[in-house]
Amino acid sequence: MKNQKGFTLVELAIVLVIIGIILGAVLKGKDLINNAKAKRLLNDLKGFEVLALTFYDRYGRLPGDGDFNGLIDGNNLNWSLQANYDDNPSNTFLTAANGDPDAPLAELQAARLLSPDTPHRILARHVFNGGFFYLHTTINGENKNAILVEHVPCYAAKIIDTAIDGTVEATKGSIIETTGGAINTSTSGWTCANEDDLVEFIYLLD
C-alpha cells in the first residue's frame, strides 16, 4: 500500500483562505441583516411620528392628550410591550386625562389612522420585539412629548442616534437614552457595555 500523503503547505494555505472567505461572508451577512433591522426600526419610528403629527393636524392635539394641555398624558419610562399594552383595548377618543399607555393608540384607531381591529401589542411591536409608546417626560425642567422605544440593541440605537442627530450622543439632541426609568444625564454617552446590550431611548416630538 502506498504511503498516504498529508496536505502540503500550499493546500493548507488555500483551505485557510477559503475558510476566511466563508467566515468573512457570514460576518458581513450578519452586519447587513443588523443594519437592515436598525433601518427598519428607524423607519417605523418615523412612521409613529407621522401618525402623531397627522392626528395633531386633524384634532389640534397629540394622541393621548386627553386634557388638551399640550402633553401626552402617560409618562412612564418603564413601560414594556408585553407588560403594559392590553390585548383588546377600546378604540375611543379621550374626553379627559388618561395616562394609560393604550390611550394614544386607541385614539389613532378611532381616527382610522391605525387598523381598528389590530391589538396594540402588534401595532406597537418593532423589529427587535420591543415596543413604541407615546408619552411625555421632563428634561432639564421642561416637559417634552416623546416616543419611548424599548428593548433595542445598543448598536441599533446608535445607528438611529447618528441618523437623526448626526452624532452618537445619548444625552443630546432628539434621541435620548433612558436608564432605569429615568433620563440618562451622564456625559459618557450610551451606557451599554457591548453593542448587543438592550437599551431604551426616547425620540422627542417637540
UniProtKB/TrEMBL annotation:
Ranges that cross the membrane: 6-27
Keyword entries, A-Z: Membrane, Transmembrane, Transmembrane helix
Coiled-coil portions: none
Glycoprotein among keywords: no
Record-linked Pfam families: N_methyl
Cross-referenced NCBIfam families: IV_pilin_GFxxxE
The protein's name: Prepilin-type N-terminal cleavage/methylation domain-containing protein
